[in-house]
Amino acid sequence: MKPIFKTIAAVAVAMLALGTVNAQTKSMKVDEVLVSGEEYVGQVVSIEGLCTHICSHGGRKMFLRGAKGLLRVESSDATGAFKDEVVNEPVRVTGTLCETRIDEEYLRSWESRIGRGKAIGEHDGCATESAARGESGNTEQQKIENFRKRIADRNAKEGKNYLSVFYVIAQSYEIL
């Protein structure tokens, strides 16, 4: 095969591969993720929402608002720290949707850290991060008990004994 044909074939294969990835990327709003994210965990999604906050500790977390709540977006090596100019702007983030499940084991581990004087850790984020996790209460123990009540309610209604906290590890983002 002549070099020009090899180049054309390689470009065609690359374009086909990129088109397949883009065709498989689910485009969603923040509220769709908060309500039905479980079916997309581990998949690359494209999510649109209003950026309301970027963490001041290095700009590695961004929060997108929907009518039903907040979604945390974590930066990656591909994105680097998020830029301040995205705050208060509509943003599209493409990345992998992840889930943290808050269940009884998670809460017992949290209580154990409290008992060892090490409750702070993933729970020491700012008020925006607490809101994105759905925390309510003034103390760590109140937050844990509120999670237990919400888990019991969900289990009674849906048969699921955990709460899902979704977040995205960004591959790219843009202001719309």
Average residue-wise pLDDT? 83
> Strand portion, in percent?
25-35%
CATH fold title: OB fold (Dihydrolipoamide Acetyltransferase, E2P)
Superfamily (CATH H level) name: Nucleic acid-binding proteins
Query: How does the major sheet shape up?
Result: 5 strands, mixed, barrel
Helix content: 25-40%
**Uncertain spans, ≥5 residues at pLDDT below 50?**
1-23
CATH class: Mainly Beta
User: Structural class, judged by helices and strands?
Assistant: alpha/beta
Query: What is the strand tally?
Result: 6
List the helices and strands in order: HEHEEEEHHHE
Number of helices: 5
What's the number of domains? 1
Radius of gyration: 20 Å
Summarize the structure.
The protein has 176 residues and is α/β, with parallel strands linked by helices.
Structure description:
This protein is of the alpha/beta class and 176 residues long. The protein has a single domain, classed as OB fold (Dihydrolipoamide Acetyltransferase, E2P). Helices cover 38% and strands 30% of the residues. It has a 5-stranded mixed β-barrel with strand order 2-3-4-6-5, surrounded by 4 helices. A hairpin with a 6-residue loop joins strand 2 (44-54) and strand 3 (61-66). Helix 3 (104-115) runs antiparallel to helix 5. The longest helix is centred in the first third of the chain and has 22 residues, at 3-24.
Topology, please?
Blueprint: H1 3-24, E1 26-29, H2 30-36, E2 44-54, E3 61-66, E4 69-74, E5 90-102, H3 104-115, H4 127-133, H5 140-158, E6 163-175
Helix pairs in contact: 3-5
